Amino acid sequence: MSYEVTYKGHQRIDDTGKPYYVNEYTESYTVPTQYKVFFTLSLFCGFRKGETLALHWNDIDFKEKKISISKSVRMTENGFDYKEPKTKKSVRKVSIPDDVIPLLKQYHFEYIQTRFSHGTAWQGDLSNGGNLFIQADGKLMGHTTPYQYFTKHLHRYNEWVQNNPDKAKAEGLEELPIIPLHGLRHSCATLLNYLEVNIIEISKTLGHSTCCFL
Asked: Does residue 109 sit within a domain?
């Protein structure tokens, strides 16, 4: 999942304070695996943002293909910290779609490499296998970071569709609405309903206290 960004020509200042001009150039980027995992879990497992941010590697059972939700990251008196999930029904185990398992394993491999490459400079939580979603030094990912990255890519995608209408039409692609990150949770419910999953099971997957919220 790569994309290109073109930077227009612009002035810069070198280390001596002398100005110089940089011509237009294009660079290729790859979406970090952890963001792919974050948005995939939001869409196909229906987790709340706080539940996803709170995940540790020990919450994932690769053998049984399930993820345990037992905590959430929310605002506390000491800032954002771990709290109990929204309701008692929010404590649950959610099945991981088969197609998501390889992505999770790939990210786990990258995570371990990153962690050991930092050595003693690693600032992340070392308990329960460590947090899934992190900053560059291993600290827990910021609460607003996922949505900032999410909208950034929605805007980039829409810009590509606008600038490449013929190619987009040939591939059946259209502009996407700039929805809240919580909208992926709603999309999960819609997808499960489309697959004719029992509404009670959908409610259990999403951790609702009652299926009336669907």
From this structure: yes
Please write the tens of the pLDDT for every residue from 92-147.
999 999 999 999 999 999 999 999 999 999 999 888 999 999 999 999 999 999 99
Cα 105 from Cα 16, distance rounded (Å): 47
80 Cβ partners below 8 Å, 6+ apart?
73, 74, 143
Dihedral over Cα of 201, 103, 135, 140: its sign = positive
Q: The domain spanning residue 77 has which CATH number?
A: 1.10.443.10
Which range of residues forms the domain containing residue 95?
32-143+182-213
Domain assignment present for residue 21? The answer is no
Residue 3 lies in a domain: no
Could you give the number of structural domains in the chain? 1
What is the Cα–Cα distance from 65 to 53, expressed in whole angstroms?
19
Nearest alpha-carbon partner for 185 in 12, 50, 29, 15? 50
Q: Model pTM?
A: 0.84
Pair type for strands 66-69 and 60-61: antiparallel
